[in-house]
Amino acid sequence: MSSNSGPRNLPKGVSATRKFNGNALKRTLKMLWQSYPALLPTALCCIIFSSIVATMPAIFNQKILADIEMFYRQGDWAGAKEVIIPKIIILASLYLVSLLAVFAQTQLMAYITQGFLGKMRKIVFNKMQTLPIKYFDTNKHGDIMSHYTNDIDAIRQLISQSIPSLIQASIIVCTVFFIMLWYSVWITLVVVAGVFLLFLVTKKVGGGSAKYFIRQQKSIGKAEGYIQEIMNGQKVVKVFCHEDKSIEAFDKVNNELYEDSRKAHAYANILGPINMNIGNILYVIIATVGGLLLLGNVWNLSLSGMALSISIVIPFLNMTKQFTGNVNQVSQQINSVVMGLAGAERVFELMDTPAEVDDGYVTLVNAIIDENGNITETENRTGTWAWKHPHGDGTLTYTELKGDVLLENVDFSYVEGRPVLKNVSVFAKPGQKVAFVGATGAGKTTITNLINRFYDIEDGKIRYDGINVNKIKKSDLRRSLGLVLQDTNLFTGTVMENIRYGRLDATDEDCINAAKLSGADDFISRMPKGYDTELSNNGSNLSQGQRQLIAIARAAVADPPVMILDEATSSIDTRTEAIVQSGMDSLMKGRTVFVIAHRLSTVKNSDVIMVLEKGEIIERGSHKELIAQKGKYYSLYTGAFELE
Amino acid sequence: MIKTLAKSIRENKLPSILTLVFIMGEVLIEAFIPRITAGLVNNIETGAAMSEVLKSGLLLIALALVSLGCGSIAALTCAKASAGFARNLRHDMFERIQRFSFSNIDKFSSTSLVTRLTTDVTHVQMSYMMIIRTAIRSPMLLIFSVVMAYTMGGALATSFVVVIPVLICGLWFVSQKAMPAFKRVFKKYDKLNESIEENVRGMRVVKGFSRENYEKQKFANAADGITDDFTKAERIVALNTPIMQFCMYFNTVVILLLGSYLVISSSGAKVNMGHISAMLTYGVQILMSLMMLSMIYVMITISLESMKRICEVLKEEPNLKNPENPVFEVKNGAIQFNNVNFKYNENAKKFALENINVSIKPGMTVGIIGGTGSSKTSLVQLIPRLYDTTEGAVLVGGVDVRDYDIKTLRDNVAMVLQKNELFSGTIKENLRWGNEDATDEEIIAACKLAQADEFVTTFADGYDTYIEQGGTNVSGGQKQRLCIARALLKKPKILILDDSTSAVDTKTDALIRKGFKEFIPETTKIIIAQRIASVEDADLIIVLDNGKIDSMGEHDELLTTSNIYREVYEQQTSGGDSDEQ
Questions:
Q1: In this structure, are residues B412 and B419 in contact, taking their beta carbons and an 8 Å threshold?
Q2: Are residues B466 and B372 in the same domain?
Q3: What residues have CB less than 8 Å from A625, skipping those under 6 apart?
Q4: Per residue of chain B (581 residues), what is the pLDDT tens digit?
Q5: Domain housing B526
Q6: Is residue B189 part of a domain?
Q7: Are A605 and A444 within 8 A, CB to CB?
Q8: Nearest to A99 among B102, B246, B371 (CB)
Q9: Residue B558 within a domain
């Protein structure tokens, strides 16, 4: 069901529609605002202030140059000093304040961004814990992970870079535009025309670059797919002396990738010189036009009403660069804001996925049962439990937890219209061992998925100690069921910690006893660090069989009345299985156990064996009875059919 | 390390050099432009004739166009050089991996190889591009601008004396502080992501044990720690902007102040207004190139890790080599193990195989039985020389396997691996791995022998059925039978099945073995199996325990002589009740 195999997905967002998503922006900003109601506006003010100050040199240059123009022919520094020094002092102090603002802003943004990302990570993770198993079965693990990596990274880009830069650049563009108009409308028009031209060119080149970057992304995917396949089968390649063939095939995908990558980067690289040199040409044009206007003594149209002079033309030259640079910046940042929002949107999608509903009200409590069978609830662990069942009329009843599981006429399908289980009934009395046998896809695992309510049944009833499982609080229901799966998942940490996962308050002794019971103690104590051996990467330093033994110990320490063993010993070879069998037997003693096994020797001694085919129970009975029946089980047992 | 990587540049040397040349041209012009604009400004200011203004204007436009040309060519050659370098790196690594022996392969996980071939190469490609484009550009622009500024601005340029060291120190300080901080936090971050992945994978366990809240708590602690570390690191980097701005602002103020004094006191003789604007431009250029340099520095340090990982692959020496004057013919399928000891790693304390002495005649069927970890696979892998023995020798057809041409040996010793793979492509294409020139008849014959024909013909597309990556669209048993057929197509002298029928039902399993006996009697067959039934009719059964031969013989013999064999046999045939069969 769940799998992260299959063809590799392109990173999300590459081919995503580039549409501006107003809702995602609003929601991001709202969350940001709520998280930092004081700091965020402060940072914003700093951004606005420092961006406006960034345009100041233009004005001061103009004023000071005008002063110079006025004084320099006389060479009268003493006189000029009076006028110029105060202006420079004002400029310097403006700069000083702006520096403080920039300092505050960058520090604040670093703090806000990382804090917010931390918060998002926690929100996403916490949300993930509440999602039903179905979510994990139907979404690729790689895609779920990409919320934590790609999407969070996109949000980081959005908050720390794109939005502040966008604000900054927009403010600068507006201010510079205003200042330009203030000085001269004519020259401003020339600048605007130049910027428009620049915009057209960069759009064209940038578009080409985007096209090839997408193609490059696809070629990378293709190359990666091929590499993955060959690396996984490298030993097969060697055994068949297929090395040269695979190099040849690889060169083909490699060359495609090269072509796309070369083109994408060529387009992207060329943008730099274009921007720069159109900027330079514009610079010349402004200088020439300015010069012509000055020489021709043309009447100046400006907001300030100033006449045109050299002290206006010079700051214009610098403003032109600032203006084009920031217009570019705005158009780039809009792009990256859109991409960032796509990431935010995917996170919101996850946040909006409905959580697993748990409306159970019957809870599991520690209990003391006296000789008369009266049950009293207690705080302390007693080794006996009871279901606490509040009723509509306000009364409370207690039912002893025994492990009596009953499925009555259960129907179920993962996808509507494609039934997986049809009219399945199973009775497991406390202490019984019930086995399920059948081909892959017959519905064995599905039954266990329903008992612990990873999925809910469509029709029929499941009762646990006589209580409808729908009434039992899910976490308590699951606590009473020990689960050992075929794919053992161990967590990073010591062996001891992994066993203790079954019951968090278990002492070291409890854990070791559980390991002894499940037959894991033997190999654990032979490792140099014993129970303190660090496991990582799903216990990759252990064999599959050893991992399964630890998983069994983990379930054993929880000491649940019911256990579900889904191919729990499939990777333990038959000889070792025989060795751990006694441990398994004592582990199963006194518990209701559901066993799913591929290997029939594992299920032979069960009280009841159910043979499933296409979602239906076609045979049931003990091993002896089924062999005598000479039906499907018999042919499986004698090896006339393969199970997979 | 650089040397190893540089070997892969090859035909991209020319475009790389061209990039450098054209970038140099671009930089030269770029450094001149402010100087000429200063003249232009001065012309306007002093009211020179319009023709003068136009003349310097045209010169500037011409320069800008040349610079655009240089820049564009450099952009193209640079893209070509870096993409080509990346292609060569991928090719070289891939080729090197193909030459790896099994023990080389064991050193690298397949996922790590995939990352090395993709992400790591991309990192190197980016920094190579950065290096040839900017690594020369920034220092040159820096030097030219400084020279220009001094020759033109004279005293005005003193402001740079203050600003440049301040900026260098500032950037240096930031990168020195920030890089280790980032390195640390990225390691933690990777760990966090790993643990999330673990959680996603193990969600059934988490939910099965109702550990959602425990996991949330655990995650919150880790995430908070990382947030703090990230904040610290990011705040250091955030210092870059104010430092840069301080230098810019300082420069502007000084040049305006000093400039106005110089212009006025000398009446424009020493310094004119054009100079002031040119000096401001040079200031920006200088500071920008310093900023770029610090970025390159960071970029290269980041990609160092990737370079290291690529070099690890490129420098890994395949430790199995063809002998000089190899033997190109395998006479027959006889196999002999003479006092073989074997361990996977020189430093391993324990031998995986100890004191193995076996002699197998051509055409024999040999079964190998033993628990997990008893080194069954290790034993057979020595025959096609997938590994070399540590001590002792393995002989095939009477010749030491180390004396054969490897391809000859492996074509004659077909091995069906335990962890077998089919590749994306049709069934026929997959089968032709065994023999490229196999005719359709040969393919069908091999499949019949492997009991694969019966199910292949039920597929709509028959032998042209497309196999998905990883062979996900055929069942385990079907996959195993196709893999056997693929090996049979080699027409080998020795056929090794390493637990290759575990998912095949016992009846089919028996049919396969029967077919072997009938149709390929001369081929030596070695069968590793879990099921006693798969080996009980073999001519020789080897029982392995813990890397040593526990016992050898025929089925009936072993039932009396080998405890292990008897134990397994009883476990598999009887179990709890014994009256069922």
A1: no
A2: yes
A3: none
A4: 888 899 999 999 999 999 999 999 998 888 888 788 778 777 776 766 777 778 888 888 898 899 999 999 999 999 999 999 999 999 999 999 999 998 888 888 787 888 899 888 988 998 899 888 887 888 888 888 888 888 877 778 888 888 888 888 998 888 888 888 888 888 888 888 888 888 888 888 888 888 888 999 999 998 999 999 989 988 998 898 899 889 888 888 888 888 888 888 877 777 777 788 788 878 888 888 888 888 888 778 778 888 999 999 999 998 888 899 999 999 999 999 999 999 888 887 788 899 999 999 999 999 999 877 788 889 999 999 999 999 999 999 999 999 999 999 999 999 998 878 889 899 999 999 999 899 999 999 999 999 999 889 988 899 999 988 777 778 778 889 999 999 999 999 999 999 888 777 777 888 899 999 999 999 999 999 887 888 888 999 999 988 899 999 999 999 999 988 988 888 777 543 333 33
A5: 335-573
A6: yes
A7: no
A8: B246
A9: yes
- Contact criterion met (CB < 8 Å) for B197 and A483: no
Q: Is the pTM of this model over 0.95?
A: no
Q: Do A102 and B242 touch (CB under 8 A)?
A: yes
Q: Which residues contact A421 (CB under 8 A, 6 or more apart)?
A: A410, A411, A412, A413, A443, A446, A447, A450, A615, A616
CA B142 to chain CA mean position, Å? 38
Using a CB-CB distance cutoff of 8 angstroms, which residues of chain B are in contact with residue A103? 239, 242
Let me know whether B350 and B279 are in one domain: no
Three-class DSSP category at A385: strand
3-state secondary structure B23-80: HHHHHHHHHHHHHHHHHHHHHHHCCCCHHHHHHHHHHHHHHHHHHHHHHHHHHHHHHH
Which candidate from A73, A220, A236 shows the least CB-CB separation from B417?
A: A236
Q: Are residues B356 and B259 in the same domain?
A: no
Q: Do B503 and A642 touch (CB under 8 A)?
A: yes
Query: How many domains does chain B divide into?
Result: 2
Q: Cβ of A374: how many Cβ atoms within 10 Å?
A: 10
CATH of the domain at B444: 3.40.50.300
The residues, ordered by sequence, that sit 6+ positions from A120 with a Cβ below 8 Å of its Cβ are: A152, A155, A347
Looking at the fold, whether B277 and B384 belong to one and the same domain comes out as no
Same domain, B407 and B470: yes
d(CA A626, CA B459): 33
Query: Does B381 share its domain with B449?
Result: yes
Asked whether residue B12 is assigned to any structural domain, the reply reads yes
Spacing of C-alpha B544 from chain mean position: 37
Instruction: Verify whether the Cβ–Cβ distance B421 to A232 is below 8 Å.
Output: yes
The SS3 assignment for A232 reads helix
8 A C-beta contact, residue B106 and residue B344: yes
Whether residues B234 and B348 share a domain: the answer is no
The CA–CA distances, whole Å, from B517 to B368, B482, B524 equal 17, 19, 10
Mind spelling out the 3-state secondary structure of B452-469?
Answer: CHHHHCCCCCHHHCEECH
Which chain B residue is nearest to residue A604, measuring alpha carbons? B576
Query: Looking at the structure, do residues B256 and B162 belong to the same domain, yes or no?
Result: yes
Q: Is residue B351 part of a domain?
A: yes
Separation between Cα atoms, residue B30 and residue B70, nearest integer Å: 11
Cβ(A405)–Cβ(A443) below 8 Å = no
Decide if B312 contacts B370 (C-beta within 8 A): no
Q: Which residues of A touch B242 (CB under 8 A)?
A: 99, 102-103, 106
Decide which of B257, B282, B315 is a domain's last residue: B315
Read off the tokens for A623: 């091993």
Distance CA B192, CA A442 (A): 38
φ and ψ at residue A187, rounded to 5 degrees? -65, -35
Report the candidate in A452, A475, A454 with the shortest Cα–Cα distance to residue A464: A452
User: B533 to chain A: nearest residue by CA?
Assistant: A639
